[in-house]
Amino acid sequence: MTTTLTPPRAAQRRSLRQVDRRTRWRKLTSLVMRMVLTVTMALACLPLVLILYVVAERGWSVVDLHFFTQDTLPFRLEGGGFRQGFVGSFLIMALAIPMAVVPGIATAVYLVEYGRGRKLAALVRFVTDVMTGVPSIFVGLFVYAVLVIGTVKLGFGTLAAAVAIAIVMLPIVVRSSEEMLKLVPDSLRSASLGMGARRWQTTTKVVLPAAAPGLATGAMLAIARGAGETAPLILTGLGSFTMTLYLVGERQASLPQLIHQNAVQPFEPGIARAWGGALCLVAITVLFTIVARVIAARFARTREGM
Amino acid sequence: MTGTSAETGAARAPHRSLPGRSRGRFADPLFKAAVTTSGVFVLALLAFMIIRTTADAWPIFAKEGLGFFTGTEWTAGQTRDLPNIHGTYGALPFMYGTLVTSAIALVIALPVSIAVALYITQLAPRRLRNPLSYGVETLAAVPSIVYGLWGLLFFLPVVLRPVMDWLHRWFGGVFLFEGPVFGLSYFSAGVVLALMVLPIMTAIIREVFAAAPTAELQAAYGLGATEWEVIRRVLVPRSMSGIVGGAMLGLGRAVGETVAVAMLVGGSQAMGYSLFFAGDTMAAHIFNTFQDALPETVLGLMAIGVALFVFTFLINVLARVLVWRASRFGGDAAV
What we know:
The complex is a heterodimer.
Chain A: H1 21-60, H2 65-69, H3 83-114, H4 119-132, H5 136-148, H6 158-183, H7 186-194, H8 199-228, H9 231-236, H10 255-263, H11 268-305
Helix pairs in contact in A: 1-11, 3-6, 3-8, 3-10, 4-6, 5-6, 6-8, 7-8, 8-11, 10-11
Chain B: H1 2-12, H2 17-20, H3 22-64, H4 67-70, E1 74-75, E2 88-89, H5 92-123, H6 126-141, H7 144-171, H8 186-210, H9 214-222, H10 227-238, H11 240-256, H12 259-264, H13 282-290, H14 295-326
Antiparallel strand pairs in B: 1-2
């Protein structure tokens, strides 16, 4: 074989600097799409800014000391506050948080510490996933059927509302706690077991404390979600015009329920109070969410370092 | 405390120290039983929820049969002799409303959330990535009632109304945008719903994109692909089932969303074909009628609730399966 490499004629070879028209077109497309994505991103942030700004602007003038220390007046009258809403929401959450967090974390412990590779655990995990998507109004209907009129006949009130909110919060606590417990390194468990601790001791004295900040995150996300729920509260607490501290037997107001009641009526003072209530509610839920996410980010970073 | 007593016990009589720990021996199975019970409790709770509400609503289903899903007339009975059902319960208008509003929400939110997820994972400067995803996900923390209030008293009159008027003026001939434009409508509820499901869908789609192996993307870049070509030809095709799953989860949320929709959809059972007509959704109808419902009406609402639950259940199961297959990610699964 005596083929020699013949160099192509110089006239046919294009300069390396010469850019193909197609390449130019491809680069242009890429640039245009980059701009489109950037603009969409900016547009997506706009609603958040608008919501926070409008709620703050319209609610700011209403929220003063009286807003927290007085019950609502009739919609037509200026002044008055949302005291019964704040108290009601506080009582409902105070009951709902332990009802959701204790079984929630226990279930997460089961999933991570005892359920690895078990079919039952996979089923539980799947069901909690599905439960996060159950409409809250359906939860409200269920609690109404069982606790308000049905089997137990508690009537509308704080306890029924708290149970409904707890059911809404439960799957969120389970899923986030599970993720956090998974982050605890197995070396900690092995060390504890190697020292002669039993499994329950390992879980309660080593794993849970190690995961504590993460568990707090999950609980706070769930609280933020639960505090903002409206639909189940109307079906279980019903609402009230005066403050009540009874847990059973008296209708209970709550912050979201009062906002709704004041928003869908025509009188200006009532609507102003609805904005004030919305400002407080957004402040509470957004604050809880941001703090929770910050703790979670720190926690994940320290865990990964281990 | 227990440690010291065990030590001294062991020092005194090594062989007798084992029975001394019997408390610990029983504590282990007890603890396991306790946490297993709470796991099973979650299962039982969901099962009980389904069975109880279905049993309560059974008279309605028994009377209407398939007509519950195909009938267009919903007239709740006004009498109180409960075992007998007097009203007519055809829930089609509410199902139609749920379908239309969720479809609007999905059509708007899906492209936007894909774009946002792409921007955050592929294009954004590294320092901006976390703040941006926090920002979008904070939208998920804003309660539904605040969306309703804001949508009803600010977004609808200030932003949406002009858009609707404009659409009606230029595309009024198309049946979708037929007037008159009143404000409260499928369209306004759907747009606000889109804002509400956007953060959930973004969070999931972002995780799916982030799970794509960097090596594949780098290989495409190495072959000379542009940014857009990598996204279009490599990233999006391999993330397809995750995107679909995220969209379904958003859809599940949109279908079950109550308060904001109840305030914006207008509450009419006319089943209008134009997006600018008022309508009603399943969740919104339950919410709006509950407070002055008679016992028989409550049964009807319970039946709608069961149907709504079945829809969201099916959507969620499908979505979870798709997302699970797409990527094994953690963290934001509970959003």
